[in-house]
Amino acid sequence: MGVHAGYAPGQATAGGRSRGRRSREGKATEGRPQELRPQELRPQFRLRRGRDDLLIEWLASLAPRRRSAAIRKALREHLAARETEDDGGGWPEDPDLAAALDALF
Fold it and tell me: Residue 43 in contact with residue 32, Cβ under 8 Å?
């Protein structure tokens, strides 16, 4: 016998919010216009002890609800640094951050 986790059809989710719900015809009934909705990507990766110890320590030091923001910030800084390097500028990087990002790419 299996266990089914979730909500029954028509049952509201926790918090009672219903953003971007669609009618039966598939038309948006409320919320932001489609072009203004954020793109949702959920990258997944594995970290291996010995090889990714620096990343494991960095992620473990962050509060669980702040990890996503910290990863996005690190990626933006890394991309900005790469653009600056392509322009011939020598933007100094944090060596720990650079090593962590190199492990991601």
Answer: no
HSE-up of residue 67 (Cα within 13 Å, Cβ side): 13
In whole angstroms, what is the distance from residue 76 CA to residue 101 CA?
11
> Which segments of the chain does DSSP mark as H helices, in order?
53-61, 67-86, 95-104
pLDDT by residue (tens digit) across 14-53? 544 555 555 556 655 577 787 788 888 888 889 999 999 9
Q: Are the C-beta atoms of 74 and 55 separated by less than 8 Å?
A: no
Grouping H, G, I as helix, E, B as strand and the rest as coil, residue 1 is coil
User: Tell me: the pLDDT tens digits for 54-92?
Assistant: 999 999 999 988 999 999 999 999 999 888 776 655 556
Provide the residue type at 28 as one letter. A
Nearest to 58 by CA among 72, 48, 71, 73: 71
